[in-house]
Amino acid sequence: MADANSGPEIPRYPLLSRREALRNIAVGAGAFASGIVIGQSTTTPRTVERVVETRASEKIYISGETIENPVASIKIEGWNLVFDKEKLGRYQSSPDRVAFVLVGAPFYTPPDMNVFRAEPVIRALPSPEFRQKGLIYLHFTETDKSGGIVRSEVYPIKLKYYSTPKKDEFETPRIFSEVQLDPDLLEKAKKTAEALGQLSYYTPIYIYKNDDPGRGGDFDPSTKRIDLPSIMFTDPVFKDEGIIRLSHEMAHAIMSNVINNHLDPRLNVMLVEVYKNLVLAAATIDPKLFTFPMRTFSLFGAPEEVRNNPYFSIFSESSYVKTDANKDVLATYSHPFSNHDELFASALTVLRSFPDQFIARYMTLDPKMREPIREVVQTIIGPLPQESEGFPMKDFLPAYDRLIKSLSIKVTR
After folding, report:
1. What's residue 95's pLDDT?
2. CB 201 within 8 A of CB 402
3. CA quadruple 257, 201, 270, 314: dihedral positive or negative?
4. What does pLDDT average to over the chain?
5. How far apart are CA 377 and CA 96, in angstroms?
6. Domain closes at, from 109, 133, 160
7. Phi, psi (5° rounding) for residue 278?
8. Neighbour-count burial for 138-148, b at 16+ CB within 10 Å, e otherwise
9. pTM: predicted TM-score of the whole model, two decimal places
10. Which of 67, 251, 296, 312 is 20 to 30 A from 23 (CA-CA)?
11. Nearest to 385, CA basis, from 376, 396, 398
């Protein structure tokens, strides 16, 4: 018999077999790592019949030290490898003659040498999953005009990082920070990542040293990782800025890893539909700025009329925070009006971080305005798994019961 609070049949978020998924990831990473040969390795040139021995440095380099290479001096600054541009300049006419590749570093893409000379920095990320004492390796090769390798050298590098403790081989998500954070703040970030990670696959989180007041940070769907600048944690412009941004990016991870990739596309289709209805509702206030699909705004953010439209501002994190920072800092902070992906990320973050303020604002709206907003919440939290199924709802969405009651949300059983 259907529950009195149940609605029409709508899709559910899939309960993941996370341990199996992570085991597959670990096996793939191990296969990649096992291909590394440090020391007496050989490489056969394409056109020259000779064997070049790869020289492996016995020294393990750390932050603050410099690798003296025949092509460039490379200074290690935290997670950055900074190359001497002047030495690289001699290869301007033939950039394919030299190559620097990080081995054992996750998510690494070798730089194009033409771009590399203009911005000669490689970002290296720690990868403790590889079993070689947490080391990564900078592999340098130089070829002659015929394409034959004339020099091959490897430099071991040990990156310093601060991280949340690792409980077991498959614990996820795990946070790695280039700078030391307040222990309580790091623990809060860990709990946030673990709670939202219940509906996402392996999503490593890297907090890199960056004091740029422009903030930044994102979720990369190709690598499945989250990058956040340290300034959000060390010098926040409002309370819990780093935690709120982490929640937002974890929501993007759920959208990318689960909703978009789930075999049942109905939930994604429904999110598009409620987003469209919200845009059309916003258009009743300002039809010139709100059309479906929404137009793209500049890097400086959307006009205030768009950001302050009540149909979208209620789902915007920046509309709830208290800060003395310049308004321009928050202009691009959240943009739920952009597409259904951004609406999902911002709405879920607001429901986790500002539930009581959201409910209070919702209750002040004209009843006719409430329905498209309620539809968004219904689509996001109605299909969530229940605690009776082993889902940690109190961690994932602490105000779940209050939201269900206040907005008359129908729960999918």
Report:
1. 61
2. no
3. negative
4. 81
5. 53
6. 160
7. -70, -40
8. bbbbbbeeeeb
9. 0.83
10. 251
11. 396
Q: How many domains does the chain have?
A: 2
Query: Which of the pair, 389 or 378, is modelled with greater confidence?
Result: 378
The residues, any chain, with a CB within 8 Å of residue 184's CB and separated by 6 or more, are none
Is 29 within the bounds of a domain?
Answer: no
Q: 319 is in which domain, residue-wise?
A: 262-407
What token pair was written down for 133? 């004492």
380 touches 347 (CB < 8 A) = yes
Residues 342, 17: Cα–Cα separation, whole Å:
26
Measured from the Cβ of residue 152, the count of other Cβ atoms closer than 10 Å reads 19
Which residue in the block uniquely carries the two structure tokens 């056969």? 44
Tokens in use for 85? 């541009």
For residue 385, count other CB atoms closer than 10 A to its CB.
Answer: 18
Please tell me the predicted confidence (pLDDT) of residue 325. Answer: 65
pLDDT at residue number 3: 43
Question: Which residues partner with 26 through β-bridges?
Answer: none
pLDDT in tens, 346-364: 999 999 999 999 999 999 9
| C-beta contacts of 360-364 below 8 A and 24+ residues apart | 361/314, 362/314, 362/406, 362/407, 363/406
Q: Is residue 39 part of a domain?
A: no
Residue bearing tokens 């056109």:
47
Beta bridge partners of 101: 139
pLDDT at 116 (0 to 100): 64
pLDDT in tens, 121-172: 888 888 756 545 678 899 998 888 887 888 899 999 998 888 876 655 555 5
Beta pairing class for 205-208 and 218-220: unpaired
Nearest-angstrom CA–CA distance, 230 and 228 = 6
Which of 160, 195, 227 terminates a domain? The answer is 160
Question: Which residue type does 78 have?
Answer: G
Q: How many residues does the chain have?
A: 413
Question: Helix, strand, coil % (nearest 5) of the chain?
Answer: 40, 15, 45
